[in-house]
Design goal:
Length: 288
C-alpha cells in the first residue's frame, strides 16, 4: 500500500488528492478481501516478489498499474457505488494502456512502463453527459482530440459510406463570426475548439425508407460518438443545431454538396449542469 501511495505521488497528483484516492483504494481493498483469505495470501506472496498480477474474474473491471515495474492489481466489482466519485473520475482522466493481446488469458498483466488504464464504464459515460454552456480556455491535448475524432470516424453509417467530414475549428476569428450565425449563443466562443459535422450529400445512401437520404442519421450517429468520447475524456460538449445554414456555409467556405448538420463546442467545463431529467421508461418504450 505504501508503494501504491508513492505511485500516486509520482503521477504528479497533489498530496491531498493522493490521500483521497489512497483511502478509496484501501477501502476497496478491504471490501474485496473480506472473506477471501486465500486470495489475500496469494496477493501478498505475489506482490512481495513484484510479479505482474491480475486476479482473473469477469465480474471485475478496473486495474491499477505501477509503471515502475511493480504491478499491484486490485479489482473492483461491476457496481462501483461504494467508491467515491473523485477516485473514479481520477481513473478516467489517466492515459490508457494496451490490453494484453491474448484475450483468452484473463490473468495476463498489462504492459509495464505504461500509464494507468483509462476506465469509465459505458453506462456511466451516458449518465455523465451534459449540455455544457460554460467552458475554460485550457488547451486540449492533441492525443485527446485525436481519440475523440477517432470515435467519430469509427461510427456506423448506411452501407458504410461514411458521408461526413469533421471540422476542427480553432481560428478565433472564424468562431466569433459563427456566433451570430448560431443565434448568438456566446458560450460557443468560450471553448478552445468548435467541432462541426458536415454531410457529403452525394456520397450518402439515398434510399432510407425507400426515398430519403441517410446523411442526417449518419452524421448524427458520428457526432454522438464524438460527444460520448469527449465525456469519457472529461470534456464538455453541447449539441448545436440552431444556426443559419446559408451563413454558416459562407463563413466556413463549404463546397457544393457539403451540408452542415450539427456543431459542438469542445472544452473543459467550468461547471457541470444539473441533470434535467428524462421521460419515464414506460413513456418511451413500447413492446410489440
Amino acid at each position: 500500500l505504501k508503494k501504491a501511495f508513492k505511485t500516486l505521488l509520482w503521477m504528479k497528483i497533489s498530496p491531498t488528492e493522493a490521500i483521497v484516492i489512497f483511502i478509496s483504494l484501501f477501502n476497496s481493498f478491504l471490501v474485496f478481501c473480506r472473506g477471501k483469505r486465500e486470495k489475500v495470501k496469494t496477493l501478498r506472496r505475489i506482490t512481495k516478489k513484484r510479479i505482474p498480477f491480475l486476479i482473473p474474474n469477469s465480474n471485475f473491471r478496473c486495474v491499477l498499474v505501477n509503471p515502475l515495474g511493480f504491478i499491484f492489481s486490485i479489482t473492483f466489482s461491476s457496481s462501483i457505488d461504494f467508491l467515491p466519485y473523485y477516485f473514479y473520475n481520477s481513473l478516467c482522466a489517466c492515459s490508457s494502456v494496451d490490453r494484453a493481446a491474448d484475450s483468452g488469458s484473463a490473468g495476463r498483466a498489462f504492459k509495464s512502463r505504461q500509464a494507468l488504464f483509462s476506465f469509465m464504464e459505458f453506462y456511466e459515460v451516458i449518465k455523465r453527459r451534459r449540455s455544457v454552456r460554460s467552458y475554460k480556455r485550457d488547451p486540449i491535448p492533441e492525443e485527446v482530440l485525436n481519440r475523440i475524432l477517432e470515435a467519430g470516424r469509427l461510427a456506423p453509417s448506411a452501407k458504410n459510406l461514411q458521408p461526413w467530414r469533421f471540422l476542427v475549428i480553432r481560428d478565433r476569428e472564424i468562431i466569433e463570426r459563427l456566433v451570430p450565425a448560431m443565434r448568438n449563443q456566446r458560450f460557443i466562443a468560450e471553448a478552445p475548439i468548435l467541432l462541426g459535422v458536415v454531410a457529403l450529400e452525394k456520397e450518402a445512401w439515398g434510399r432510407m425508407g425507400g426515398y430519403w437520404a441517410s446523411y442526417p442519421v449518419d452524421c448524427a450517429i458520428a457526432l454522438e460518438h464524438i460527444i460520448l468520447a469527449a465525456t469519457a475524456e472529461g470534456l464538455g460538449t453541447c449539441w448545436i443545431g440552431a444556426y443559419d445554414e446559408k451563413e454558416v456555409i459562407r463563413i466556413l467556405d463549404l463546397k457544393e454538396g457539403e451540408k452542415p448538420i450539427a456543431f459542438t463546442p469542445l472544452g473543459y467545463p467550468k461547471e457541470l449542469p444539473q441533470e434535467r431529467g428524462r421521460k419515464s421508461f414506460s413513456e418511451v418504450v413500447r413492446y410489440i
